[in-house]
TrEMBL record:
Origin: domain of life: Eukaryota
Annotated organism of origin: Hibiscus sabdariffa
SUPFAM superfamilies referenced in this protein's UniProt entry, alphabetically: Ribonuclease H-like
Residue ranges annotated for the RNase H type-1 domain, each copy included: 3-75
PANTHER family: OS05G0353850 PROTEIN, POLYNUCLEOTIDYL TRANSFERASE, RIBONUCLEASE H-LIKE SUPERFAMILY PROTEIN
InterPro entries tied to this protein: RNase_H-like (IPR053151), RNase_H-like_dom_plant (IPR044730), RNaseH-like_sf (IPR012337), RNaseH_domain (IPR002156), RNaseH_sf (IPR036397)
Protein name: RNase H type-1 domain-containing protein
Length: 106
């Protein structure tokens, strides 16, 4: 979450929709749980969210979040690198179809 927000800000994106599958994370970010902000990474996320831009945070159930899960699994373990894709990775189109059907949109 932090790196996604960080790069979005650095690249000039000023409207972000952040979808996460953790209800606790959504509450911590949207309700500004400062008590929870003892965690360093949450503090850094809140600093980014407070910048002058629009950040909307939503909970998306895991059962309709196959694309995000698939992309996360492609990430290198313990890597802080960021990959930018001009076209979807192989298999992502199929996961998007699964998300769409599970959400009742297809």
């Amino acid at each position: 979450m932090y790196l996604g927000l960080h790069y979005a800000w650095e690249w000039g994106v000023r409207k972000v929709i952040l979808e996460v599958d953790s209800a606790d994370t959504v509450l911590a970010v949207t309700n500004r749980h400062k008590g929870s902000a003892q965690l360093s990474i949450l503090t850094q996320v809140l600093v980014l969210v407070d910048k002058v831009w629009e950040v909307q945070v939503y909970r998306v159930p895991r059962r309709v979040n196959w694309v995000a899960d698939g992309l996360a699994k492609t990430a290198r373990i313990n890597s802080l690198d960021c990959d930018y894709f001009e076209t979807p990775l192989a298999g992502i189109d199929e996961l998007l179809l699964v998300d769409t059907l599970e959400a009742g949109l297809g």
